[in-house]
Every structure is written in C-alpha cells, then in structure tokens.
Amino acid sequence: MPTFEYGGVTLAVDEDGFMQEPDRWNQAVAAALATTEGVNALTDNHWKVVNYLREYYLQFGVAPMIRKLCKQTGFSLKEIYEMFPSGPAKGACKVAGLPKPTGCV
Amino acid sequence: MKQPDGLKDIARRPGQPLALVAPNDQTPLPPPFDRVDEDPPIRPLSETARSAYAVLDDTIAVNIERPKTEDEEQALVEAFLSGLAKLFSVPDNWTFLQPLEMSMEHCARCQTCSEACHIFEESGGNELYRPTFRSEILRRIYFKYVKKASPLVHGDIDLNWETVARLIELAYRCNLCRRCAQTCPIGVDNALLSREIRKIASQEMGIAPRELHRDGSVLQLAVGSSTGMTPLVVKDNIEFIDEDTAERTGLAIKTPWDVVGADILLIHNAGEIMSWPENPGAFATVFTAAGLSWTMSSEITAYDAINYGVWYDDIQFARVAVHHAAAARRLGVRKIVLGECGHAHKALTVIADKVLTGDLNIPRESGLVLLRDIVRSGKIAFDTSRNDFPVTLHDPCNMVRLMGLVSPQREIIDAVVPEARFREMAPHGVDNYCCGGGSGFAIMSGHNFADWRHHVSGRRKFRQILEAFADEPMTQDHPKYVCAPCSNCKGQIRDIITYYDAWEKAGIYYGGLVELVVNAMVDAKPGFIDWEWH
Questions:
Q1: Strands (E), chain A
Q2: I need a surface site. Which of B29, B336, B338, B483 has the fewest CB within 10 A?
Q3: Is A93 an annotated catalytic residue?
C-alpha cells in the first residue's frame, strides 16, 4: 500500500491517492491532500465543499450525488472543477477524506 | 514496437513488460486530434507497482502480488490448474461448458478474429493483444498439463508463476465484446475464454480486481448497491432527483417505491442515480406521462441493476440475479424492466435464464423496448426541433451483439430527433465496436490503467465518434451529442471526452437516450439537456 507524505502528515493511500483510514482525517490532512490537487491554500469556498462532503459522508456512509453537492453548496459544477481540478469525486472527495467512489459512477 | 516474440514469452523475462504501446505505433486519430505529438501520453507504470505486482505490459488491472517464496509460486500454479480442470466438469461448470469446449477444441488458427478486435487493431497490431494469443496459451496449458496430451499435437508452453499471473492480467485486456466470436467462421469465442480465465482466478484463487469484487458485487450484496447507497440513501437521492427534474421540466413526478402489484419493476444501474441523475429523472417523467403502473424496489441489491459477476464470477452473478428476481416476485410485478445498462441486460435478460427457474423466472425486458412502445403509443407529443443538434448513437455490445436489440433505440431517435441531424457510426448495430470500457474497464483506473483504457481499448470508439461528426464544425460552440444508452459506456465516453478535452476542443458531449426523449417532450419546459460540462 503506498503512503502519502506532506509536511508532518503521513497517510496510507490507494493507487489513486485516496486515504485508507478515513477516521484519521483532520484539517491538516485535508490541507496536505489538497496539494495533490494543486491547491496550496484552502479558501473558505474550498472548506464549504469539503465540510459538506465530510458531513454527508459521516451521516450516510457514502458520497453525496454531485448535483446535490452543487445545489447544497450553491456552486456550479464548473466552479467546483475550478476549485478541485480533478472534479468533485476524484478531487474534492479525496481532500475530504472520503474513500474512492465505487460502482458505475 | 515492443511485443512478444511468441506465445512462449509469457513464461519468460520475469517482472519485465512483454509489450508497450507507444503513440507512434498507433494510427493517428481524425482531426482535430490527429497530431501524434499532442496525443496525451500513457504515463509509465511506477517502479513501486512494477516490483510489487505481476507485470504483463506497462499497466496493471488486477494487482497480483509477486510471491515471496517458491511455495507461493507453486501454489498459484496449482490453484490455476485445479480451477482449469473444474471448468471441464459438468457439476462445476454446467453453465458454460458447452461453448467453452467448442472454443477450446475447434479454433482453426485462421486469425479472422484479429482484425475484428478493436484492442489489437488500435494497439498497432501488438501480438500480446491478438485475441488468439491468450486463448492459445490457455489451450496449450489445458492440453499439456490437465489432459496430459502431447505438446507435439497441441503446442508447447512452459507453466510457471509468470505464465499464470500474466494470463490472468491478460484476461483483463479484453472487453468481452465478443466481436471476435461474431466474425469467427466456427464461432470460437475468445471473450468467453477471457471470462473463464477471470472465473478461475476469482472462484478458485480469490483473485479479482477490487473495483469488481470487493467494491462491486460484495458491496452490492452487503449494503444494497455497488455505489455504497443504502436503501435510505437511494430513496433520499431519488426524492431529490424527482424534485430537481420537476424544476427543470415543469412536470411533477413522484417515483413510486415498493408498490405491491405494480405492472413493472424498474431497475436502474445505481450509478445513474449518483452520476447521471437526469437519466432516472427522465425515465420517471416518461413513465408518468405515459400513465404506466410501475415501481422501484428499496430492497437491498434490487435498486441497483448492476451484476458485475457477468464479468468475472458465476457465483456472484447468480447471487445478485436471484436477489433481483426475488424482489420482483415479492412485489408481484408482471415484469422487470432494465434501465440503460448494457451488462445488466446481459445478466438479467440473457444469462439469468440459466439460473432463474419456476416462479423466479419472471419476464424481463429492456427499457429501450418499453420506451419505444411508449413513443409509438402516441400518448406523448414530441417536437423534434427541440433536439436540433448533431446526434450519433453508440450501440452497447450487450444490447446489439448479444441480444439483437438494434431497432428500438433507432425508432425512438427517429421520433425525437430531426432526421437530418442523426448519423450512424460506421460500423453500428450488431457490428458495433465496444466503447472500450466494457467488462468493467470503465470503472477501473488503478495505477495508469485509465491511460491504457483511453489510449488503446477506447481509441476505436473515439475514432468512430470523430468520423461520425466529420462533416460538422469541430468547435465547442457547435455542440454534438453522443447518445450512449448504457451507464458503463457513458462513463467510458465521458472519460475519453475528458482525456482528450473533446468538449472544449470539439464540442463533443454525451448522454443517454431517454434524455433525448424528455428533451423533445412538448409538455416539458425546453432545455432538459443543459450541455453543462465543467
């Protein structure tokens, strides 16, 4: 299993860089994972997306539908891609410490 | 070009790739993607991955860990032989024994199949991807090591850890599209052989890609869906989709759940609900407008039509198929209707005939046939000018080649798209090419596998799409629609568009079939298809 290191953060990740132990997520982890998305500083808007994903995941055990994410945060899909270049599933979810999406998505 | 010198290479050069696909080996794509130097490169496999797992070419689908001891090496070989022997026993493999034996015994080595294979052709004719390469290795292993026949008759092959591990990886370089079987004068089915190898790996050796097994069929049977959606979440999501769709169309819908005695149980690939919510929303809109008696089921597994077992494991396949049928039986519906998902068609309408008996053998039908009946019925008025943009149609292999389901989708398009705007791909219908994501590839992207999938297995489809639109301006302000009535195909086409930046550079967009239907409904607000990329 590969590991990811940045600053003081060391994490077990899968081949796509998703963290394997979601309970170890915290804000420093999010900031470290964001660097893999080319994001060196998380803005309030980034946090709005990350926090929504995180809260939804903790409540339901799965990522929200992308359209729900857009509607609830008020960002368009385009804006989310501007914040997280790999997109909501592969980028934003990764930063929020969610596992890699599964199924035909 | 780096490629194997012959079949026996499969056992040689441990840890080294037997083949590499370089952009210069490949036929350039049509414009505006014809510049080889602008082709996105296949990123090399990392050194860590190469030293940890079996290496076949320069990518990895299965993650077969390299053995630490000679005993481990030997155990893998023995497990494979044990599984191979079981394939030829009636109690173990009554489902597929007959076509397997025919494909093992009767290949005339004429190579007619090779030209039919999009992977072999688009790799630049790399021997590793020739459809008979893996079939012939499997045959030689079988005759020499299981049947103990003379290698002088059937050909020789060395059998070691590399042979077995690479053969399993190689079974995941085939989309299982069965175009080779269709063209074979004898009917030898190389795709069936690929799947039988996958089956030995999974059922006898516990080896399968994580996306298909642990995160796929196992997750579906445990929580209800390969997407991870529980019954609670799927109902919440569908409620959201109903509201969101109604806002867009101006037509109120309420998806019915668990209605006992409804005529139809509709099962979507749950990936549609998560990633393409306009598709289930459009189905609900059309069914409501047509006044159908229908329901969805919130029982575990029965709200997700996926059945990844058809790609790699008969047992997982049967478990899911029986769950689907049992949910329909409990509701007392007259038939199961499948949404736009190709492999679910294969699973439930075709292969499940072998396992569903008695009152589990409930009629199953393609959603495309039902949509065609609705469109024909005259209950819904359409304005084709709402779909006034270039449209082409991708045929999912499991619908056309496997089932002969060719005309319903065209009748639908004929009713909702202006005649002059629709153009076929060449070839199409039963002679179609796979999207390149078939057999699970569309959801597999570990290491650099997605690069291989876009560059090699998906290249023919992208070529066909570009050729279909060749007479149109290839710019973003002239949007074009690739209609792909299958979740897996849609995921692959979305990924190819992203990989080649084909929306920005050429205005190529994609979506399902029922979306075109709702987009043309006179009673709905215009603009259901919103062309929102990112």
A1: 3-6, 9-12
A2: B29
A3: no
Which pTM value belongs to this model? 0.96
What's B472-528 look like in SS3?
CCCCCCCCEEEECCCHHHHHHHHHHHHHHCHHHHHCEEEECCHHHHHHCECCCCCCC
Q: What is the 8-class DSSP label of residue B96?
A: T
Residue A9: give its domain's CATH number.
1.10.10.370
Confirm whether A100 is domain-assigned. no
| Cβ atoms of B340 and B279 closer than 8 Å | yes
Q: Single out the residue of A53, A56, A64 nearest to residue B277, CA to CA.
A: A64
The interface predicted TM-score of the complex, written ipTM, equals: 0.93
pLDDT in tens, B359-377: 999 999 999 999 999 999 9
Q: What is the distance between the alpha carbons of residues B521 and B11, in angstroms, rounded to a whole number?
A: 59
Residues of chain A with C-beta less than 8 angstroms from the C-beta of B491: 104-105
> Which pLDDT tens digit goes with each residue over B79-100?
999 999 999 999 999 999 999 9
Chain B residue numbers with beta carbons less than 8 Å from the beta carbon of A98 are none
Select from B232, B244, B304 the Cβ nearest to the Cβ of A67: B244
What amino acid is encoded at B242 in this protein? D
Name every residue whose Cβ is closer than 8 Å to that of residue B77 and which is 6 or more positions away in sequence.
B159, B160, B161, B163, B164
The answer to the question of residue B2 being in a domain is no
> Please, are residues A33 and B203 in contact by the beta-carbon 8 Å criterion?
no
Cross-chain CB nearest to B229 (options A62, A76, A87): A62
Q: Among A5, A74, A103, A104, which one carries the catalytic annotation? A: A104
Give the range of the structural domain holding residue B156, as residue numbers without chain letter: 7-205
Count of structural domains within chain B: 3
